[in-house]
Specification:
By secondary structure, the chain is an all-alpha fold. The protein contains eleven helices and no strands. The longest helix is centred in the C-terminal third of the chain and has 20 residues.
Length: 234
């Protein structure tokens, strides 16, 4: 196997802008250049070596592209379609290393189809879609609070999702933040969820109520970070 090295460009500088489609294509091409010759038995080791040579932001973005590649080749397929840009943004905000075995398995599955991902597709209202995905997941967890055996885990999930949403929000600036500030629907959904968390916390056991309180506090901080006033939403 020929030695390879990550591209010489300052990948960490531009990969922080994960909305830059040119940057995403460059990262993807660099990944393929490093791994294309690796067979199924070699891929995991080759991929681990390549990712280890990237800076933190470049690695996170590259992992997100791997997670999103199947969705990026499938296109939009109705209300429940997998949104590759949402997958990418949420992985980037999560700031956790991807399991190398999982990454290699995804790449091997993608190779079978040999369909090039479209890293320029679905470019509109991305921040609203990302925010909406967090809020849908939180609403799903809220619905589980009615089941006593599932309520503690659901409340913990709500606190975790609220923390992830906050991490996503604090990274936004410029046009991305303005997109959410100008979205009446996003403001409405955030305000409704905040009210639901307050109402449900009153009727739950202490261990559940504590996590609902954490989720609500994080949601309120997120709204302040985004400069969204839930009190004026009708």
């Amino acid at each position: 196997m020929t030695d390879f090295a990550p591209p010489d460009d300052d990948l960490d500088q531009w990969s922080n802008a994960i909305g830059d489609d040119d940057a995403l294509e460059q990262l993807w091409d660099a990944l393929l250049s490093a791994t294309d010759e690796a067979g199924p038995k070699e891929l995991e080791a080759v991929l681990a070596r390549y990712l280890a040579g990237l800076g933190a932001r470049s690695r996170r973005t590259t992992e997100g592209l791997i997670l999103a590649v199947m969705a990026a080749t499938a296109g939009e397929e109705g209300a429940q379609w997998d949104d590759w840009r949402v997958i990418l943004h949420r992985h980037f905000a999560l700031d956790e290393r991807m399991d190398i075995a999982v990454a290699a398995a995804i790449l091997l599955e993608w190779r079978k189809e040999a369909v090039a991902p479209d890293w320029r597709s679905q470019p509109d209202r991305v921040m609203e879609r990302v925010l909406g995905s967090y809020l849908r997941d939180m609403q799903t967890s809220l619905g589980l609070l009615d089941k006593p055996e599932e309520a503690p885990e659901a409340a913990a999930d709500l606190a975790m999702l609220a923390s992830q949403l906050f991490d996503f929000a604090i990274a936004l600036e410029g046009d991305r933040q303005e997109e959410l500030q100008n979205s009446a629907e996003s403001a409405r959904l955030l305000a409704e969820l905040e009210r639901s968390l307050a109402e449900r916390a009153e009727e739950q056991p202490k261990v559940v109520s504590l996590n609902l309180g954490k989720a609500r506090a994080l949601l309120e901080v997120t709204m302040r970070q985004l400069e969204i006033d839930g009190g004026v939403v009708h």
